[in-house]
What does this fold into?
Amino acid sequence: MLDKNGIAKRIAKEIKDGYYVNLGIGIPTLVANYIPEGINVVLQSENGLLGMGPFPFEGEEDPDLINAGKQTITTLAGSSIFDSAMSFGMIRAQKIDLTILGAMEVSENGDIANWKIPGKMVKGMGGAMDLVASAKNIIVAMQHINKAGESKLLPNCTLPLTGVKCIKKVVTELAVLDILPEGGFRLLERAPGVSVDFIKQSTLGKLYADDNVPEMVLD
It folds into this structure.
């Protein structure tokens, strides 16, 4: 199985040259550390930054430079800082080519739940609702199974929804999966050493898999 950095490293391979990319809170922020060499991308943070770089080394943090998850970050040459109203204007005007979000649950129809667990205190939905309503392409970085060993890829989400039929691809510690237009997860790649049978057992939603599913290539 992959760890969180492995998930981020695999998702970084989905980024194309020239993309403007929004990184959500959690695992997606790690993607900034794994942008492939020779790929020119602009990372956006919804609190008002274009040109986000990798995380700073310990002792080199600037407390005035943070991402939407309140983590200290770095900026690259040519970066731009502005207010959140302009940032959400970019998102709502579909200026972002790819959005990478975390999730608590994803359904076989591409629904996403990623902002609230009933009964637990939350600060609010944040920018997730705008992102799922406006993004051209959304990839989810998430755990396939929870701490109890239960699937988080479901026929229908059980938690409050953030967006409906908006997710295109999911990358987990076990697999890379597309969501088909007619519904259902299609297994594209499996994590090194993980069997197709185990992925099937770990997925409650409808899953389609070929006989020979390749392992992920991370390096």
The chain has four helices and 13 strands. The CA atoms of residues 44 and 125 lie 18 Å apart. The mean pLDDT is 92. Residues 4-12 form the longest helix (9 residues).
